[in-house]
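Q: Structure for this?
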Amino acid sequence: MQQGRVVRGGFELTPRLIALAGVMIAVVFVATRLIQVPIPGGYVHLGDIAIYFASFTFGPLVGAIAGALGPTLADLSSGFANYAPGTFVIHGLQGLVAGLIGWRAGLWRMALAGLVGGVILVGGYFIYDFFILRVGTGTAIADVWFNLGQAATGAIVSIPLVLAVRKVYPPIETWTARRVWQEEPR
Amino acid sequence: MDATAPGEPPIRFERFTFRYPPVAGAAPVTALEEISLEVAAGEFLGITGSTGSGKSTLCLAIAGLVPQETGGIVGGSVVVTGWDTRYTPVPQLATRVGVVFQDPESNLVGLSVEDEVAFGPENLGIPPAEIARRVDWALEVVGLSHERNRLSAHLSGGQKQRLAIAAVLAMQPQILVLDEPTAQLDPVGKEEVIAAVERLRQELGRRLTIVLVESDTELLSRFADRIVVLHAGRVALEGSPRAVFSRTQELAALGIRIPPLAELAARLNRALGAELSFLSQTEAEAALARLLEQTGLTRSNDQPPRAGHQERPAAEPVPAPRQARAGSLLTLASERDDQTLHAREPASLIEIEDARYRYGGVYPALNGVSLRIGAGEFLALIGPNGSGKTTLAKHCNGLLRPESGRVLVAGQDTRTTHVGQLARTVGYAFQNPDHQLFLPSVAEELAYGPRNLGLRGPELRARVDEALERFGLAELRNRHPTLLGRGLRQLVAIAAVYALSPRLLILDEPTCGLDGQATGRLMATIEELVAEGRSVLLITHDLRLVAEHARRVVLVHEGRILGDGPPRQILTDEALLARAGMAPLTIARLSRGLSRYGILPSLTEAELAEAVLARLAAGTGHSGLTREGGPG
Amino acid sequence: MSAGYDLYAPGDSWLHRLDPRVKLILTAMAALLVLLWSSLPLLLAALALAHLLLALARYPRGLAIGVWRALAPLLILIVTLWPVFDRRGEPVLLALGPLIVTGEALLRGLATALRIAALSFTLLLWLGTTDQRSLVRSLVRLGLPFSLGMALTIGLRFIPTFAGVYQTVSEAFQARGLTLPPRGLRRLQAMLPILVAALVTALRMSEQLGWTLAARGVGAPVRRTTLRDLAMRPADWLALAAGLAAGLALLWLTLAEGLGRALR
């Protein structure tokens, strides 16, 4: 091998996880920025659905990375840079916690994760709006309304989505597991 | 770096067996079985095989990705430059082996051209000055020096694959593994990549061992020192390209598409009892010229050959001779049934009148296209990437609507009719089957479309069963579509669109990822559909397929229709093809090269073989050939 | 066509050439100040300064207007909703039952909107003049683990790819007779097939990407080198020093002396 100091420790992901996290960042970005659906009283984007999908299928780590970076890039690239720092923390936490509760879990644990994630989302943005950006009570409440829609659709749609993908593409169940090979018995 | 042990071949498979880890409780899937194979230093090894033969797994095994990154069950060993791939970490193996995969998107990890090439050496801790030198060199070899600061997302498919090759070269491997690097490219991109590999060969000569996996056997026969044919995970045939490609019948049985020149040689050999063999066009031209000259034929072209010759008189009925117009001895599919077609003068299914379209209202894609497609037509849409083929096709089912001009689908204006409604008339199978598979069984996948159209109960079941049957998928009806091999996924996706029972079926590169056998079966099915009166619009880069099957060819270039006519008219018009940046068929070029011996332009191997045989017979009065009059 | 996903505009101004780490640190500093301020004139000045700097960097006007357009609904919302919850101050412009709109409340709403706009445009100074490569590189040099920097790079590169996949998948489903309801949960439900197929396609790509990464030596047990490392030029140090000094002075004035904390 080449000359060089051996680097150990620190935060390292396997190539497989790096690629997965990267692709999920792009997925969350596209879902946030480009896929929007009108609902009564406004519109929702699919970002939260994508974050829950990442958390429920690939766990807290990938969920947190995709959750933190995907929507932050979406904010930064759309002129809402003012929300980016909040988004980074709030959606990162949402992805992390949803993954801790709902990773490879059944319907009810996923629903619980969606609920907790929703609280983080709605509460987090309210705090950010009210205390950091100081946008005023009215706007902060309006944002609560928007985020409630996000949280609700995120949980309601992501659960059947996760179940459907598990059914359609079984390899996904062991996607993040370490790959081990064995010698064939002779 | 520690040097390779002397006498150790760069790659040695020793009774290597590999089974992928089981999915969803199923049994492990065997990909390679008892492979023993050695690749010599500096060798250019070509590997081919039908889909599912294990050729991609073989590539992964050389790089150590199998089994280290995939898991699974391993028997025997693969030793690469003395390193056992089971125990040598992949990053270390990467200093000796570079791999380029089929999908251009999955080969690139960096944002810009330069980043991409520098990435590998950076990971290996190479000093920056040395990296800079390698980047310059690698970009030079693949011809991307002037693009070094561009974003890789803005490159064409061919450029992306060349970039992937450069990225691997910068790691200075001793072995380069290319896994179908041109399979997803258009002819232009394909030639770019081939030129890069040729350049590499010149530059590095025997210092680089190359393993090229290809289903395009024509490409392999041009480059490889040796060919290995895999079948069901085992080595089925092995030898020099000349030796392997002369065994056409065995190859066909293994699902391999025979290179056109090999096919031509085989046909001539069968008829003449000769032992012709050509790998390149020049070689073929020289050999055929010698053959034709031996017979003492005059070089003049004043005596055109006549139709009606037959090797075995009265053995099988000859189709009505049609050389009066085409001058050919055999008829193409396009010439067999167009009589009836023209007699019918079909009502137009699709009517496009002066359609114009710009993407995002800015980028012009269609610049005034008019086209009519009738019932029962089998039409091929050809042209380089970015010519507007797909844009045009998407106008036929309302996915895109013209900015000006109009498109009528069975009389309905696409601007006022919903796409879902038009889906009853026009079915569109997209190129990548994964873009439409989403259900846990093949049967459900097929039922999805018709259900959208309102079919229920026994009617729906009958529709699904018929589609399954027609595409030979009946035994797979309960399997997971996403877990099937690429070729089968392609068939499921096409069948799922066919299940809508459309009057016009649009197929975008349907044979991409299919081997010779599957391609043959699919085309036979398509021919059936046409015979039953459905229309088919085939978008393809494969001109061989077009020559053999299509009845009408539409050549698109820069958003305009450059040519529209029977295959013989369009595909033999080299000037026309060149204007669209397309290369003619090998056989067409060859037949033109032989025109001084009175050989008329041919499109298929069968046709050219017949023409040569007829000419030989005309020259010698060869016993096996009778000379009846022409068609009068 | 990836232009729509990115506010970066290529150029060769001093702002473009400034070391991305310096740019990041200074914009963060400026953003913090703007966040702390409530003063209408000060925020107006900050916004004007940001626009001046953008103009000097020859940042395209179209992109800047695009940012204003994106922000507009939020800004209008802030200005209109502010008086509803803030009845302090004089003069009373409108009194409709419980709704009392005062001039001061309107000004406060305006100042808040300006703060949000100033924040966005301050950050645009950084985003609009730093290409994605330098962005990731600077984050890694400021301590982001390499794995994450790599994931971020792949994410950025994959955005147009996945957007294309999603688009094609939707078309493929429409061609199979899928008609999406116009809005609401029913539309979301009908989109499930599209999402499933797009996600499975993306996963297949991610698997091969992972192989590519491994085969390019990611995870080799050596210290990584970089072809083009960021290097601070004297001008960068100067800008950092001057910017930080000014920023810290303003911060001290703000926190200790109450600079810009009041409306006027």
